[in-house]
Fold this sequence. Notes:
Chain A has helices at about 15-25, 35-40, 75-80, 80-85, 90-95, 100-105, 110, 125-130, 160-165, 185, 265, 275-290, 300-320; strands spanning about 5-10, 30, 50-55, 65-70, 170-175, 175-180, 200-205, 215-220, 235-240, 245-255, 260. By secondary structure, chain A is of the alpha+beta class. The longest helix of chain A is centred in the C-terminal third of the chain and has 22 residues, at about 300-320. The model of chain A has no long low-confidence stretch (mean pLDDT about 95). Chain B has helices spanning about 25-35, 90-95, 105-120, 125-130, 145-169; strands spanning about 5-10, 15-20, 50-55, 60, 75. Bound molecules: flavin-adenine dinucleotide, iron/sulfur cluster and FE2/S2 (inorganic) cluster (2 copies).
Amino acid sequence: MLLPRFELHRPSSVDEALTIAARHAGDCDFIAGGTDLLQNYKNRLNPRGHVVSLLGIDALQELSPTRIGALTTLARIEESETMRRELPILVEAASKVASPLVRQTATLGGNLLVETRCYYFNQSEFWRRSKGYCLKAEGDVCLVVPQKETCYAAFSGDMAPALMALGASARLKSLDGERIVKLTEFYEGDGIKRYVLRPGELVQGVELPPSATSLRGAYRKLRLRDTFDYPELGLAVTLGMEGEKIRELHVCAAAMETVPLCFDDLTGSLHGQPLSDSLIQLLGERIVKRVKPVKNTALSPNYRRKMVMVYLRRMLEQLATAGN
Amino acid sequence: MKNREILELEVNGHRRQTAARPYDVLLDVLRDGLDLTGTKRGCDMGTCGCCTVLMDGKPVLSCLTLAGQCEGKAITTIEGLKDGAHLHPLQKCFADAGGSQCGFCTPGFLMTCTALLEKNQEPSDGEIREAISGNMCRCTGYVKIIEAIQQSAEVLRARKAGNEGQADV
Lengths: 324, 169
Ligand SMILES: Cc1cc2nc3c(=O)[nH]c(=O)nc-3n(C[C@H](O)[C@H](O)[C@H](O)COP(=O)(O)OP(=O)(O)OC[C@H]3O[C@@H](n4cnc5c(N)ncnc54)[C@H](O)[C@@H]3O)c2cc1C
Ligand code: SF4
Ligand code: FES
Ligand code: FES
């Protein structure tokens, strides 16, 4: 399928990329691996006239337990011995994205900004035209929750919840300068707005606190097929214990709502308590009550919510024994 | 907006020039620009693996790769796999073991497996399953494919042992 027409720019530095993006403000997208963007362009989902390739920018390729460049591919994270040893949760999350072929070119930056997904959006132009377009592309009404203001497309990236649960921040750069935003504050708004990134601003990578490597972590993913499929639920849990008591606990989820969710307000009060069955049950019930998936992916919202409890219990049991 | 411009790619060891649009994916440039039609278009969306080629030795999906992002990379397609008049062991074993039926998925599988066997000459069935999990076959049921890959791994190991043996003499 032919892509829509665009001009391709190939800068070799971040500043050059930002200048080109500013010149074509409003009609420009960045492209890294292209595994998300090109699918959407083929389906004529909000294509732009200018595309700025970031692949020529060597500065965004770094990979260490405290800094990961936006252009680092998921395959590189998965194969890195250092990451396996220091931050196995990121290796686990990366190895569950798409298929091994996609992961060769899929980048971390692209994964953090992967387009939100919805059954009525991820379709061909022909399909969408027949159905009547929706709010997120070309139309003016949502086909899932009929109204004209809010899009409910699900955030479907696997790396964001795992990084959030480790306390990571995104390093952003625009012509106005650099800023660092905690991932828990990076995502906001509906399926169209998605994040605080400004037009023309670029993700340079993520930063992790050195203490992240002291946490035990796990990532589980609910999906139809064990390869290819985007998450129907992605649950990341990190745990730090002091003897029998919880020192630190973070639970983050993808594919429940339009942004990845972090439940620090529910887990914060559990610090200092022993990790018991009843604590896990109570926490699970509170999270299940909180999340509000809608009917716009393959599996039913009710099933996806119930699986939060199942995964949470299995993961916390696994993490509790992993330390003994 | 500029339409076609000259794109220079290194394909199967040769420098090739072709006219390409900035919005062409590698798959279209290989098939339509360079007449290398061995690389197949299945889904065109990243979910079948039929379009797999090697880029600097790594298996990538040419349907989701912009041709303009491939300059300076070494690309290998199924046409570049055989050694002179000799089929690559993977090609021969897929044919002999029945790992290829209609054949549409085969070029993609062969490129994925070339990269796998380059990295790991003694893959377990589990490692093979994981490596080919991005390639779909609607005919064989995968059992024969895994057999074919194990057989070619054996041929490659024997060859390597033979070469090393000769070097010792
Ligand atoms: C078959 C298939 C299955 C998939 N399954 C999954 C899955 O299970 N889980 C999952 O998380 N993803 C999945 N994906 C989506 C995608 O492959 C990954 O999210 C990938 O990590 C995206 O990275 P990329 O480099 O290809 O992004 P691109 O496609 O290059 O970019 C994605 C978006 O991010 C923007 N962007 C990229 N880099 C930057 C940057 N540094 N700064 C600012 N903007 C930037 C682009 O403008 C674009 O909007 C799948 C894709 C395919 C084809
Ligand atoms: S949630 Fe509604 S507006 Fe958003 S993509 Fe789906 S149908 Fe469109
Ligand atoms: S044609 Fe590229 S993955 Fe199907
Ligand atoms: S041999 Fe027909 S699809 Fe694989």
